[in-house]
């Protein structure tokens, strides 16, 4: 059976999978060729040297983050959907996103999501500085949440763990006065739900009409 000719997209797909799984250091031309079952010279023919390959992966990552499509019945829900999609994209590609950052293309990477947020801010009636504030606040919320999640996942095991601390806390205070609070804080964290709740609250506050200033406030 004739072997299908190797394509540039196959090379990039396999290279991206290696980076996602093992990080950029694991991406060598020899290892990539072995994964594809081809000669190293074939890899060079399709993508050039390793630096050119990394540049191509960065460009592809930036392009992928430009395909986020909002969903929802109103601007608030569509803004939340953009935030959730962006969080998922960043979490799925930590090593690739780091490569984008190292090449000074972080702002370009976020531009498509910012444009989508601007569109929804305008649909909600926000203009100027208020619209910009919403775009930045949502972006920072997403990035901050992802960083906290990643740090928690990579942190050494805690002893006692956060859940154990709350489960066994007998110190007079909030936990003793509010047993359901202690039980909730002792339960595993649903980061997806927590993120969505936080973004919805943030967006609701930013979309709320500004209250008129009291007379004589200025």
Structural commentary:
This protein is mostly helical and 218 residues long. The protein is built from twelve helices and no strands. Helix 8 runs antiparallel to helix 12. The longest helix is centred in the middle third of the chain and has 27 residues. The radius of gyration is 23 Å and the shape is flat. The model has no long low-confidence stretch (mean pLDDT 86).
Largest sheet: none
The CATH class name of the domain at 64-207 reads Mainly Alpha
Q: Count the helices. How many?
A: 12
Extended strand count? 0
The percent range for strand residues is: under 5%
Low-confidence stretches: none
CATH architecture of the domain at 64-207: Orthogonal Bundle
Mean pLDDT reading: 86
Query: H/E element string?
Result: HHHHHHHHHHHH
* End-to-end Cα distance: 82 Å
How do the strands and helices of this protein lay out in sequence?
Elements: H1 8-22, H2 29-36, H3 40-47, H4 50-64, H5 75-92, H6 94-102, H7 106-123, H8 128-154, H9 162-167, H10 174-177, H11 179-186, H12 191-207
Helix pairs in contact: 2-3, 4-6, 5-7, 5-8, 5-12, 7-8, 8-12
From the structure above, extract its key features.
218 residues; mainly alpha; Tetracycline Repressor, domain 2; 12 helices
Concise description?
The protein has 218 residues and is mainly α. The protein has helices spanning 8-22, 29-36, 40-47, 50-64, 75-92, 94-102, 106-123, 128-154, 162-167, 174-177, 179-186, 191-207. The chain has 12 helices and no strands.
């Amino acid at each position: 059976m004739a072997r299908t000719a190797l394509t540039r997209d196959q090379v990039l797909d396999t290279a991206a999978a290696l980076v996602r799984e093992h990080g950029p250091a694991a991406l060598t031309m020899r290892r990539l060729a072995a994964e594809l079952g081809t000669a190293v010279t074939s890899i060079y023919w399709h993508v050039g040297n390793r630096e050119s390959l990394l540049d191509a992966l960065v460009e592809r990552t930036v392009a992928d983050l430009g395909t986020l499509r909002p969903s929802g019945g109103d601007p608030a829900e569509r803004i939340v959907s953009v935030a959730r999609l962006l969080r998922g994209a960043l979490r799925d590609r930590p090593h690739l996103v780091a490569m984008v950052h190292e090449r000074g293309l972080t702002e370009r990477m976020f531009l498509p999501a910012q444009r989508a947020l601007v569109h929804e801010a305008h649909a909600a009636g926000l203009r100027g500085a208020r619209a910009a504030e919403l775009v930045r606040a949502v972006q920072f919320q997403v990035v901050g949440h992802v960083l906290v999640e990643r740090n928690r996942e990579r942190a050494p095991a805690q002893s006692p763990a956060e859940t154990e601390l709350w489960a066994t806390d007998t110190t007079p205070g909030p936990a003793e006065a509010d047993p359901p609070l202690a039980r909730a804080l002792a339960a595993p964290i649903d980061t997806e739900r927590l993120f969505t709740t936080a973004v919805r609250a943030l967006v609701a506050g930013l979309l709320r009409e500004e209250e008129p200033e009291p007379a004589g406030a200025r």
